[in-house]
Amino acid sequence: MAINYVYQCALPPEITLGHYILHRLRQLGIHTIFGLPGEFNMPLLDKIYTIPQMVWAGNTNELNAAYAADGYSRIKRLGCLVTTFGVGELSAINGVAGSFAEHVGLIHIVGMPPISAQVRQLLLHHTLGNGDFKVFYRLASDVAAYTSILNDMETLASEVDKCLTIAFTKQRPVYLGIPVNMVDVILSSSLLNFPLNLDIQNRNVEVEEEFVAAVLSAMYKSQNPAIIVDACVTRHGLIEETKQLVERTPFPVFCTPMGKGALDEQHPHFGGTFVGSMSSPQVREVVDFSDFILVVGALLSDFNTSSFHFAYRAKNTVLLFSNHAKLKNAVYPDLELKVALNLILARLDSSKIRYRPQKISDVIKPKLRLMNNVPLRQEWVWSQITNWFRAGDIVITETGTSAFGINQSKFPSRTRCISQALWGSVGYSVGACLGASFAAREEGSDPRVILFVGDGALQLTVQEVSTMIRWGLKPIIFLMNNNGYTIDRLLHKKSNAGYHDIQSWDNLRILPTFGASHYDARKVKTVGDFLALIEDPKFAINDKIKMVEVLLPPMDAPPALMEKWLLTDKADSEIDGRVDDLHAEDNDAFITKRIKLNDNRRSIVDYNMSYDNMDSV
Amino acid sequence: MAINYVYQCALPPEITLGHYILHRLRQLGIHTIFGLPGEFNMPLLDKIYTIPQMVWAGNTNELNAAYAADGYSRIKRLGCLVTTFGVGELSAINGVAGSFAEHVGLIHIVGMPPISAQVRQLLLHHTLGNGDFKVFYRLASDVAAYTSILNDMETLASEVDKCLTIAFTKQRPVYLGIPVNMVDVILSSSLLNFPLNLDIQNRNVEVEEEFVAAVLSAMYKSQNPAIIVDACVTRHGLIEETKQLVERTPFPVFCTPMGKGALDEQHPHFGGTFVGSMSSPQVREVVDFSDFILVVGALLSDFNTSSFHFAYRAKNTVLLFSNHAKLKNAVYPDLELKVALNLILARLDSSKIRYRPQKISDVIKPKLRLMNNVPLRQEWVWSQITNWFRAGDIVITETGTSAFGINQSKFPSRTRCISQALWGSVGYSVGACLGASFAAREEGSDPRVILFVGDGALQLTVQEVSTMIRWGLKPIIFLMNNNGYTIDRLLHKKSNAGYHDIQSWDNLRILPTFGASHYDARKVKTVGDFLALIEDPKFAINDKIKMVEVLLPPMDAPPALMEKWLLTDKADSEIDGRVDDLHAEDNDAFITKRIKLNDNRRSIVDYNMSYDNMDSV
Predict the structure, then answer these.
(1) A183, A45: one domain
(2) Which regions span the lipid bilayer (chains A, B) (predicted)?
C-alpha cells in the first residue's frame, strides 16, 4: 500500500501533523472517525474533510462515541475516537475502559490546550482549576496500553506510528494527546511511504517450539479433546487460521459468548456455545469430561479460576491469550496468539491424533409452532430469530437478557457478533451499533447490522440512534421491551423494587423524533406478529433504519438465565449450607471448594450472586 | 435536630450501615438520591425505600445522574450520587470532576464487589480483567477532596461521618466505596443522635484578626472601591452575610457569572455582572479603575492572573476563597471564607469609610419594541426574558451562548442561578435541571425551574428529560435552537465546518416520546410569538413540564460574544503584531505582557482564541 502512497494520494511534499495522523489511519483502513468537536480538537477535525473517503461521524456524546469507535474496531480491528481535553475525554473514559478490558484496538486522540498555556498553568476552562494539566493523562494511563502527548518536535511522526502500532497489534486503547498548537506542525509527507511495522517483535523461536511441541503432544494423546474459541481470535484477525485448525482436527469445537462469530457455527464439528455452568447439557457433556482443552484467543486473564469450571476437570488445558500462553500451570510470556496458532498449524500432524470423532448433538432443537395469539416469551423469540440470520450479518447484543438469548442461536457462516460480556456497560450496544453500521457500509457488500437492546439499556444511549439516522445508516433494531431492568430483577431477586423500573417511552416515536423520514417502526406482541415479521422478505432487507419493539414480560428471560437463577433457590440453599460447613476447614481448601460451589450458580460473566454468603477475609 | 433523632424516627436500637448512611444524609436535608442500580449497590438502594421522605431518582445514565446530583447540591449544598463499581462510576466521573472544579458538595457512593472477591482477585465483570480492584478508586482520587472504602469494621460510622462532613464543609466531591457485603453490617442507631460536626476546625484567631485589620484598613482608605461576589458565597451558604456586607458599605457591588444569584441584583448598589474584558462599559468603568476590590467567595485559584485583568490595575485586591484568603500578594492559608466574612462584618466600622457613593448606571437598557414579524435574535430574547423572571426562580443555563446571554439579565431578588462556567461540560444543564427540580419541589414554595439549553447541548443528555416526566417535575425548558454548536462556530471562526452541525430533531415530539401526557410544547420564531408567550400569565405558571423551542439564526449570539469575537478581527491582528514584537523581550516580561494582551480577547471562562499565536515554550 505504502511505497507510492504520497504519489497515489497526490500529496504535497510537506503536510501537517494532523494530516499525517489521518493518512496513517487511512492506511490502516480507518475511514470513519468518532467523537465530538471541542475548541482544542477543531484544528484537527478541519483536516478530516480533506482526506479522501474519510468521514467525521459527529456523535451525540463522548461516551456514545467511545462505544461507536469500539464497535467499529470490532469489525475493522481499529477504531479512532477524538475528544477534547477534560470534559470530553472524561466523558468517554468508561467506553475506553471497556475497550481496554475487552481487548479492542482503539486510538483515542485528545485535543489539548497549547503547550504554552500548560507550562504557564493558565486557568483554562475544562481544567480542575488547580493548574494540573496532567491529571486527565494520568487517569487515562490506567485504561490504555500506552499514553503519549505529542510535545517533542523531533519525534512527532515516530510517536504517532508507535501509538497506532501498539493500538493495532496489542488490540488495546492508546491515548494520544495533541496540544492544539502542534496540529499544524509541518512534516515530510514521504514518511507515509514507509508502512507501519505491524509484525510481532521480540520473538523467541526456542520458546515457541517448546510450547507447541508440548501442546501437540498432549493433543495427540487426548481421548476426549475440545477446542474453545474466544474473543481474541476476532480481535487479532485470526478467523482464517482458526478455521484451518478446526478443519485439520476432528475435535468438537465450541465458542464462548465473547467468541461468537469467530467460528463457522455451521461446521459439522461445532458443538455450541460454552457458557461455563450455564451451558446447555450437550455442551457440558463434552467440555466437562474433556481431557484436553485448547482455548484459542482466550480473553480472560484468570479464565481458569473464575467462571470456567472446566479447569478443575480437564487434565490438560492450553490457553492461547493474545500475548502469552498457558499450558496447565506453565506460563509462556510474550508468546503472541498469532505466532502460537500459526506454529501449531505448521507443526500439526493430523495423522497422530488418536481421538475418533463422535457425533455432536445439534445445538438447536426444533420448536413446536405455537398458536398465533400466544404472547411472546424470550425463549421462543430467540429460538426463532436464529433462522432469520444470514451469512455476513453483524449481530449486536446488549448486556442483559439479550446477551444470554443470543447464545441460544446457531449462526450462519460468516456471521459476526458484538457484545460486551466482560465489561458489561449498559447501553454500549447502541453506540457499538452505530460504529458497526459505519464499518458495514464501508464493506461494499453492505451487510445487515442487527441490534438487540433492552428498553432499559436503550435509555442510557438512545440519542446515538439519531446519528444513525443522520448518516442514512440502516440497522435493524430489535427493542426487547420488558419494562425495565429485567436482568437486575433476576440478579437481585427483588423483582418489585422501584429501582428496576424505568420511565415508559413511546418507543415507536423515537425514529421520527430524531428526524427520520425513511424508516420502519413497529411493535410485535404475539407469536403471530413475530412470525409475520420474520417471514416477510421485505422486512429482512436493510433498505432503511428499522425498529421493532418486541413486547416481553418483565420477569421473563432466556432459559439459561431462568433455569439458573429462578429455579435454583433450593439448590442455592443447599450450597449455602455446604459453604457454612466449609468454614471449619482450613482456608485454602475452603476457598477452593467455595469457588467450585459458587461456580454452580455463576454465569460466564460471573454474575456473582453469592456475595451475600461471603464475609470479609 | 439530632438528640432525639432515633426517637423521632422510631428507629430500632440497631440499624444497618446502609440505613446509617441514609439517615445521616437525611439529617443534612438530602431527600433525593441520584444514580443507577447495579448489582453491587442494590442492597443499599433497597434501604432508600425505608427512609421517610427519601426518593431514589433513578436516572437514565450515570453522567446525567452526576449532573443531577450537582444541580441538586447547588440548591441544597449537598448532593448524593450512587453508582456501581467500574462501569457506573467511570460513566459518572466527568460529572464528578465538574463538581470538583466548581466546588460543589457531593457524596459519591460506589457499590463495590465483596471484599472477599477483591482479596482473591476474582474476575468479576466490570473489572479491567487484570484483578486490579483499586483502579477506579485511584482514578476517583484526582477529582475528590477525600476518598474512602468502608472495609474497617471498627470505624464504619466515623468514616461515613468524615466523608459527609468533608463533602459538606469543603463543598467538594467525596468518594465513598462500599463493598456490597458491608451494607448490612449492624451499627447502633444511637450514633445518629450525635449531630455531624460541621464547624470549622483549626482556627487561628491571630491570623484572622491580622488579615481582617489589613482588609479594613485598605477598605476605609479606598477612593474607588468595588465588591465582587463569586460562586463560593452560594456554595457555602453565605448569601445572608454577603447581603449584610452590601448593606453596611456604600460600595458598588458586582457579581461574576458564576456568582449570579448570590446577590440581590435589585439592590441600589448593584452594578452588573463582571465578565472581565467582556463586561459592559458601565461595569468596566467602575472595576477597571478601582483602587480596592473585595472578591467574596472567589472560586478560581488563579483568579488574578488569568481571566480577570482588574488585578493589574487595582492597588489592593482582597480575595476570599472558600478555604484561604489573599490580600494583594499575601496568602493566608486555612482562613475559611465563612470565618473571614463574619469577622469583617464584626469588625467593620462603616463610619470610617471615606468613599462617597456615586450613581450607578442601570444595567439594563430599555429596548425598542420591534415589529411582531421580525425573526428572533439572541440579544433581543435575552433583553426580554429578564422581565419575565420572578423572585425565587431557579435559572439554569448551558455552557454555550445561553451562559453569555444570561449575563445580560438583571435578576429579581432571590433568583437562583446555576451554570457550569469553569468546567463547561456540554449537556450539564439538562441533568442539573433535573436535580434542581427535585430540590425546588422539596422547598414547599415550589419555585419555578427555568432551563436555557441549546439544541446541540440538549442532544448529549436529552434522556434526562424523561426522568423529569417520570417524577412529574415541571421545569420550563427554553430550547435555544440555533442549528448546531453555535458557540463553537464562533470560537473556531469556521462557521461552515461540518462538525458544527447536528442531526435536526423534531424537538416538539421529545416530551410525548418520553411518555409525557400532561405537557406544553411549542415553537416561537418571531418577536410576536415570543411576546405573546411571555405576556401570557398561564404560560408563566409551572403547572406542568413545558418546552419552548426558540428558533434562532445559527450565527447569532448574545452581544457580548458577537462584539468580542466577530467584530474584533482587526483588533486581533493588531494584538498579534504586538505579541510578535514582544518575542524579543526577556521571558518574564514577555509572558506578563502577553497575558495582558490576551486578556483583551478572553472571556471569563477563558475561551482562549489565542493559541494559534502561541508556540511551545
Answers:
(1) yes
(2) none
pTM of the model: 0.91
ipTM exceeding cut-off 0.85 for this assembly: yes
Question: At B406, which amino acid appears?
Answer: I
Residue B558: per-residue pLDDT: 82
A189 lies in the same domain as A209: no
Beta strands in A263-399 (DSSP E): 270-273, 292-298, 316-321, 325-327, 330-332, 394-397
pLDDT, averaged in runs of 10, over chain B (617 residues): 82 97 98 95 96 96 98 98 96 97 96 79 67 83 95 95 97 97 96 93 91 96 94 95 96 92 94 82 85 90 40 71 91 94 97 87 66 93 93 94 85 94 93 98 95 96 98 98 84 78 96 98 97 96 98 84 55 38 35 36 31 28
The residue among A559, A576, A600 that closes a domain is A559
Query: CATH no. for residue A120?
Result: 3.40.50.970
Q: Tell me: is residue B455 an annotated ligand-binding position.
A: yes
CA distance A303 to chain B (A): 8
Residue of A nearest to B62 (CA): A460
B154 & B97 share domain: yes
- Name the E strands within A309-384: 316-321, 325-327, 330-332
Residue at B613 is within a domain: no
Is residue A607 assigned to a domain? no
Q: In this structure, how many other beta carbons lie within 10 angstroms of the beta carbon of residue A609?
A: 20
Domain count, chain B: 3
CA distance linking residue A444 with residue A431, whole number of Å? 21
**Where in the sequence is the domain holding B110, given as residue range(s)?**
5-193
Give me B617's grid cell. 515554550
Rounded distance, CA A547 to CA A507, Å? Answer: 9
Distance CA B102, CA B230 (A): 11
Alpha helical stretches, state H, A400-519: 401-405, 428-442, 455-461, 464-470, 486-492, 510-513
CA distance B458 to B604: 23
**Does A555 lie in the same domain as A457?**
yes
| Residue B225 in grid coordinates | 472601591
- Cα angle value B480/B484/B490 (rounded, 5°): 95
User: Residue B267 has what DSSP assignment?
Assistant: S
Among partner residues A460, A510, A608, which is closest to B117 by beta-carbon distance? Answer: A608
Burial category of B590 from C-beta neighbours within 10 Å (exposed 0-12, middle 13-18, buried 19 and up):
middle
Q: Are A187 and A216 found together in one domain? A: no
Q: Give yes or no: residues A344 and A485 share one domain.
A: no
Q: Is the Cβ pair B463, A466 closer than 8 Å?
A: no
Of A240, A239, A219, whose CA–CA distance to A230 is shortest? A239
Kindly state whether residues A261 and A220 are assigned to the same domain.
Answer: yes
A–B: how many Cβ contacts below 8 A?
317
**If we measure between CA atoms, which residue out of A277, A162, A180, A314 comes closest to residue A609?**
A277
Distance (Å) from the alpha carbon of B362 to chain A's nearest alpha carbon: 30
Question: Cell digits for B616?
Answer: 511551545
From A500, which residue of chain B is nearest by alpha-carbon distance? B37
With b meaning 16 or more CB within 10 Å and e meaning fewer, what string describes A569-588?
eeebeebeeebeebeeeeee
R_g (Cα) of chain B, nearest Å: 25
CATH code for position B239: 3.40.50.1220
Shared domain for A65 and A186, answered yes or no, is yes
Residue at B546: amino acid letter = K
A235/A297 Cα distance (integer angstroms): 9
Q: For residue range B182-237, what is the model confidence (pLDDT) as tens digits?
A: 999 999 999 999 999 998 888 899 999 999 999 999 999 999 999 999 999 999 99
Q: What is the CA radius of gyration of chain A?
A: 25
- Asked whether residue A199 is domain-assigned, the answer is no
Q: Is B606 part of any domain?
A: no
A522 φ/ψ angles, rounded to the nearest 5 degrees: -150, 170
DSSP code of residue A157: H
Cross-chain Cβ contact A42/B492 below 8 Å: yes
